[in-house]
Amino acid sequence: MKQFFLFILVLLLTASCGDDHKGTVDKIKFKGEKEKLSYSLGVNQAEIYFNKANLSPEDFNQNKVIEGFSKELKTEFEIDSACIQTVQLFLGNGQQEINDRYIVQGSYCIGKMNAQNFMRIWNKPGAIEKLDLEFVKRGFKDVIQKKPLSLTKADRSLLIKNFYEKLVEDLTKVMLDSVLVKKNVQKIENELLIETIQEGNGASPSDSSDIAIDFILTTPYGDTMENSFKRSKEKKEPVFNVQQMYEGWSIAFPKLKQGGTYRVYIPFDMHKDPRLPFPYIIYYVKLNNVGPKGSLIKADNSTNKRINPIK
Length: 311
Prior knowledge:
40% of the residues lie in helices and 14% in strands. By secondary structure, the protein is of the alpha+beta class.
């Protein structure tokens, strides 16, 4: 858990790497920490997007970006596939070939997609009720309009870090309290947990075996990140060598048996995947087949590498 919080600290301190947009404008008079935190998260959302895309707000119709974010920042939403296509037409390949024909619709969709990305992250029990969405919008707007920011980068980073650390501590405690009371759960090395849903009756893999599996990867919030069960009928089950998986997988799989179904709780220290910034990730796993190294996976098979759960 210590490595997880160190990673989050680095992520938060580097994600919001813009300046404080010095200038002459009235600063916001915040009434409390809730407003400051919300403003900071709005700033962070805008800075992360523009820094990652290597774009500037001047490339967009700023009013439409702000309108899209403000109108679409709501707890209930559906991903708009038409908006995704519009952004692709607007920004082109690699988001670097801007087509001014789509600047109005594209700018609105950029704001909308940022609003939905924000909600995907923070619209969770224990999080969203601690935010004031009007101040989230204000922080986002100030970045788009390049106004002087009302909180320093250091203050924003500290507010977000403290909020996220408290959130994941509470979440982890709730999750562990519910899991550890189950009789079919065993704790093994470094807080890794294995829940046996249906015991297998076949062989257990060694730490060098090939395995064929189906799995569902979820976050502690229950969000599904990948589901191999939904693959097309033409595609075969995923096949891996245990040694090429996350450290947590290579420790957990020798405890499983072929034909069984399990839920494996892997702490951050045992996967260290920056795309999955959670204290635990959870795999629902069906172990379909086990074989010696090289028996299920060919040396030139493109899947013979560390699992890549985020497409």
